[in-house]
Recover the amino acids of this structure.
């Protein structure tokens, strides 16, 4: 509210403090995502990226601070209702339901949809995006390759017809070809559906390439923020994250 | 000799099927919610007493009473879950154990107060004269018990495998956080699981109560057997609970028939000790799948 | 002003409370340990109810030694450990000078050393294991029968009259069940019969199909059933369901026929023989009027429950204790113990007086259930 913006703010995170027991993970973190924007979140291992995402999706709760979504405070709204209102997290390490088929995994993604008549349309969109999933739809999700699992996870997230996707470590443990394939798909989704994305990545190149704005998180503090293009030129970032 | 073996196996299957029915609910609640439900025996007992109250006092049709009794216990289960367990979500397993033990003592004594210690017998709409099938003797109440039990188990199996709700249950069981992120209302799943489990225990109570007698402390032995079955089949394993129940029933029958009836209950515990020694995750523990 | 009110309230409470506790001190306490919960609760409640009738009657007549008597009842759950706890509570907290209990043989045997340690007499009302009075303890008196006496009495009838030539036992796996099996087996064997099978079950067991299947192929012509009411009824029900009604069935130790009929059903209980102590339909000679009076009072107070032997023993037990307190001229444990030796009561359960082992010999009989009603077959003494 204090700093006027030309773009409509979709999600605003303000002064988050969070942690587990005595261990504090996040210190006064603030972050904003505008409608139709892709925001990147950079940071090394243990910087607190996943904790921040979990707080936005409602899996964890902050000690202090607030989260506003579409102008309403959602700090104490449960995960289920956040998903219903359009926030979807694609969890790190995919976290598919290994004992269910690909199709069942995808269908569960639309569990929160009030209007179930939209389900076939959404399913078609996902199968169109990843034809391989259509071929494997009867297969147990636990038997998919890493890349296919990531596709399935992304597909499951899209099934809830989200307004905001939180993508956690998309590239983790995947072959470059698979990463490229999924990034292409993500760009296509961004073009075709009017949504916003928060990309959390260790792969700084990828993160800055995808996003328009980015934040750098170090040991629980936001140390830098700005347009991604500028950050990509920042000597300090080039030194510590790009190894140049 | 062969006749006797056959008869003992059939006796065992009758008992085993109701063990399985009790244990399925217990194992589901544990697998899904990490709650060791010591109140399970009381849901079993309440099933018997509700059916008794409906048939003997209100003169309702027996089959209607069975259904109503199960639904009534499900309502009790639902309330218990919402009021006592929901606020303790995420607390340690010891906390919920204390709560379910407390609730068990409370319900048992409430039943004692309401219905008194006198054992009751549920009036049946059919005569319980023995039916001789070749060398094997059975009664209608037993045939009915086995049929309804298997009917209920198949129904629950279909519910879990086929319905969206069932898929959401399995998803919650396999990856709770991911289920939350997929928009599954995990709280609703928990409430439903607990309610369903209570209903299954009640079903077993009604059916065994129709064969034997009902009294306030009848749940004690039922829950003991259910725990044995759950350990046999692997904690949280649906198929394991069914097989475990049948195995326990038949082993007890054969053991009592050919070793000594004095050691009948010991047999179950010997089985558990052997399983824990050689297959600590249960006979079917490996396939941790719902 | 407020202070005044406070003082008045305090003084007033002291007076009221003082009166209350003085009144309570006046009463002579009698401890009772019975199963009030668990599988034996039905029977335990009956004992307490019978005892309550005696308490009322005695107090209505002015009590004993000019004081009212007051029963202090504890739940022993028919379990040794629980009953010992109950006894400790009664002796230490309530300081009762005498206890009646503890229903089950195992529980009674566990309580006996506690009584000896505290030098307080125990009146045993229903536990039948021989070990309760053999070897005898100076602190333990028994008004109910024991398995040795029952065995002796049955010897004349079991094989010769009733035809139990190849008997099978189904007994509770505890001191009570094992004692019955021991002495009744002797009774069978002494008259040329054989015991073909003995099946023990855990207390609270419900499924007897395995044992009955075994009995059906064992060639037994009779089953002797020893357990609590609901278990015995369950066994009777299941003998019928497995088509074993041609085999003679006898239920030992005074399980009421009415309860068997109610719980097992009229069809299943047809022809079942019942070994009785006190029964409503055949009181000891000379007790008919007193018996009717007792039954009327009991039924008026507990309308939905048939009168059973447990109530009668509970009733007689309290009368014996009250009589002993009168003889002792003090509510003192040691004096009551001495007085019990000389106590004689013409009870509903028989002429109660104690032999050199502190054992009384109650009245017993055998009846047969016909169309849901018990018919006297033979009086044993």
């Amino acid at each position: 509210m204090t700093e006027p913006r030309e773009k409509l703010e979709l999600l605003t995170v303000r002064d988050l403090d969070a942690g587990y027991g005595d261990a504090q993970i996040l210190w006064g973190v603030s972050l904003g995502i505008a409608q139709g924007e892709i925001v990147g979140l950079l940071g090394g291992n243990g910087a607190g990226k996943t904790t921040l995402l979990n707080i936005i999706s409602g899996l964890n709760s902050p000690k202090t601070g607030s989260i506003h979504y579409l102008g309403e405070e959602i700090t104490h709204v449960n995960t289920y209702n956040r998903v219903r209102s359009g926030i979807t997290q694609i969890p790190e390490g995919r976290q598919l339901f290994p004992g269910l088929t690909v199709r069942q995994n995808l269908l569960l993604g639309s569990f929160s949809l009030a209007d179930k008549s939209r389900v076939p349309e959404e399913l078609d969109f996902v199968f169109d995006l990843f034809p391989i999933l259509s071929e494997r739809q009867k297969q147990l999700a636990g038997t998919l390759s890493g890349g296919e699992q990531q596709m399935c996870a992304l597909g499951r997230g899209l099934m809830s017809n989200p307004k905001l996707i939180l993508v956690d470590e998309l590239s983790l443990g995947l072959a470059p070809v698979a990463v490229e394939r999924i990034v292409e798909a993500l760009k296509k989704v961004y073009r075709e559906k009017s949504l916003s994305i928060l990309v959390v990545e260790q792969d700084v190149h990828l993160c800055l390439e995808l996003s328009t704005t980015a934040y750098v998180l170090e040991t629980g503090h936001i140390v830098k923020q700005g347009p991604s293009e500028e950050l990509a030129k920042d000597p300090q970032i080039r030194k510590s994250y790009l190894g140049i | 000799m062969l006749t006797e073996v056959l008869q003992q196996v059939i006796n065992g299957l009758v008992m085993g099927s109701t063990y399985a029915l009790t244990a399925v609910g217990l194992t589901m609640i544990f697998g899904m919610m990490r709650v060791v439900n010591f109140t399970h025996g009381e849901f079993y007992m309440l099933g018997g007493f509700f059916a008794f109250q409906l048939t003997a006092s209100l003169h309702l049709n027996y089959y209607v009473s069975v259904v109503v009794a199960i639904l009534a216990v499900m309502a009790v289960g639902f309330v218990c879950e919402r009021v006592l367990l929901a606020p303790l979500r995420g607390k340690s397993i010891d906390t919920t154990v204390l709560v379910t033990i407390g609730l068990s003592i409370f319900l048992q004594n409430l039943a004692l107060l309401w219905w008194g210690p006198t054992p009751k017998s549920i009036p049946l709409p059919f005569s319980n004269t023995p039916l001789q099938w070749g060398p094997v003797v059975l009664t209608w109440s037993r045939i009915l018990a086995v049929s309804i039990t298997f009917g209920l188990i198949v129904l629950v199996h279909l519910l879990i495998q086929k319905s969206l709700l069932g898929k959401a249950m399995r998803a919650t069981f396999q990856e709770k956080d991911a289920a939350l992120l997929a928009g599954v209302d995990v709280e609703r799943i928990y409430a439903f699981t607990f309610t369903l489990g209570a209903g299954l225990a009640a079903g077993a109570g009604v059916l065994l109560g129709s064969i034997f007698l009902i009294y306030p402390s009848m749940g004690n032995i039922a829950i003991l057997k259910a725990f044995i079955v759950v350990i046999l089949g692997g904690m949280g394993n649906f198929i394991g609970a069914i097989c475990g129940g049948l195995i326990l029933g038949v082993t007890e029958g054969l053991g009592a028939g050919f070793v000594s009836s004095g050691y009948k209950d010991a047999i179950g515990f010997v089985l558990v000790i052997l399983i824990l020694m050689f297959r600590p995750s249960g006979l079917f523990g490996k396939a941790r799948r719902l | 002003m407020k202070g005044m009110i406070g003082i008045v309230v305090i003084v007033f409470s002291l007076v009221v409370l003082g009166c209350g506790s003085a009144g309570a001190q006046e009463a002579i306490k009698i401890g009772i340990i019975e199963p009030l919960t668990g599988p034996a609760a039905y029977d335990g409640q009956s004992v307490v109810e019978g005892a309550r009738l005696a308490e009322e009657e005695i107090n209505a007549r002015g009590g004993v030694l000019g004081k009212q008597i007051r029963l202090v009842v504890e739940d022993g759950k028919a379990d040794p450990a629980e009953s010992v706890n109950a006894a400790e509570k009664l002796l230490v907290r309530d300081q009762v000078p005498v206890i009646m209990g503890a229903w089950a043989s195992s529980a009674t045997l566990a309580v006996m050393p506690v009584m000896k340690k505290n030098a307080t007499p125990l009146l045993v009302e229903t536990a039948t294991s021989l070990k309760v009075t053999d070897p005898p303890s100076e602190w333990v008196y028994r008004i109910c029968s024991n398995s040795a006496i029952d065995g002796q009495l049955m010897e004349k009838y079991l094989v010769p009259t009733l035809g139990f030539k190849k008997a099978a036992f189904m007994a509770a796996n505890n001191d009570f069940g094992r004692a019955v099996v021991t002495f009744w087996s002797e009774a069978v064997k002494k008259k040329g019969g054989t015991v073909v099978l003995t099946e023990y079950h855990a207390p609270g067991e419900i499924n007897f199909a395995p044992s009955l299947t075994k009995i059906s192929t064992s060639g037994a012509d009779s089953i002797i059933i020893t357990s609590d009411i609901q278990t015995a009824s369950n066994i009777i029900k299941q003998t019928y369901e497995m088509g074993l009604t041609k085999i003679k069935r006898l239920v030992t130790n005074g399980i009421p026929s009415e309860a068997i009929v109610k719980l097992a059903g009229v069809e299943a209980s047809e022809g079942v023989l019942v070994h009785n102590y006190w029964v409503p339909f055949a009181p000891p000679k000379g007790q008919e009027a007193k018996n009717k009076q007792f039954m009327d009072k009991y039924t008026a107070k507990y309308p939905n429950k048939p009168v059973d032997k447990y109530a009668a023993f509970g009733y007689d037990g309290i009368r014996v204790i009250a009589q002993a307190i009168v003889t002792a001229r003090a509510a003192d444990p040691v004096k009551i113990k001495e007085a019990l030796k000389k106590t004689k009561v013409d009870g509903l359960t028989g002429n109660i007086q104690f032999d050199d082992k502190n054992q009384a010999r109650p009245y017993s009989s055998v009846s047969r259930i016909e169309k849901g009603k018990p018919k006297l077959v033979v009086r044993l003494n």
